Amino acid sequence: MKEDKNSPNKLNTEQAESLLSTLQSRFEANTDRHPDLNWADVRAKLDAHPNKLWSLNEMERTGGEPDVVGYDDASGEYMFYDCAPQSPEGRRSLCYDQEALESRKKNKPAGSAFAMAEAMGIALLTEAEYRHLQTLGEFDTSTSSWLVTPSKVRALGGAIFGDRRYDTVWVYHNGADSYYAARGFRGSLRV
Questions:
Q1: CA–CA distance, 153 with 84 (Å, rounded to integer)
Q2: Rounded distance between C-alpha atoms, residue 111 and residue 30, angstroms
Q3: What is the pLDDT of the chain when averaged over all its residues?
Q4: What percentage of the chain reaches a pLDDT higher than 90?
Q5: How far apart, in whole angstroms, are the C-alpha atoms of residue 108 and residue 125?
Q6: Which of 5, 51, 166, 190 lies 20 to 30 angstroms, CA to CA, from 133?
Q7: What's the pLDDT score for residue 7?
């Protein structure tokens, strides 16, 4: 992997190798998430797109525990989702988006889920992606995660989130400007 020491969004060789080792270990420990895929192919794709490592490292650094959850035949991309058991700890207490953050007059959170995801180079999970993730294990049993919200709901001031309670996956709504210590967001990245 070629290093670009001038870019703030690049990992050095040591950081990249450490992350790749972590990703490989997680991939091999959770083959049920990707039964028909192999690490050598994923690694080749990551080597061909080293710019994606920085985003994966941000997912890891903030507690997301990213892992491969599928392969898109149409685009030829591997799909990484945050697979931490609970909503990533380093991404909680955020309102939904920048508009919601700006609308709060007092007790503003530190930021918004959308702004943080954009800064990390990832996307929030959609409801469909979240439901797919929940078929791979039990996630958000004591937390919740903001999800990409339909524009009609967002235009009315709301946003949706998901969680798992009573062995059931729930998608519900809240004001987009709300924030909670147990609500964060899960991201996705295509490589």
A1: 28
A2: 32
A3: 94
A4: 91
A5: 24
A6: 51
A7: 52
Domain boundaries, the chain: 8-191
Instruction: Give the strand order in the sheet containing 144-147.
Output: 168-175, 158-165, 144-147, 183-185
Q: pLDDT band for 9, please (50, 70, 90 cuts).
A: confident
Q: 94: closest CA among 180, 186, 187? A: 180
Check: CB of residue 71 under 8 Å from CB of residue 138: no
d(CA 80, CA 88): 14
User: What torsion, rounded to 10 degrees, do the Cα atoms 129, 76, 115, 127 define?
Assistant: -10
- Rounded CA-CA distance 147/96 in Å is 9
pTM score above 0.85: yes
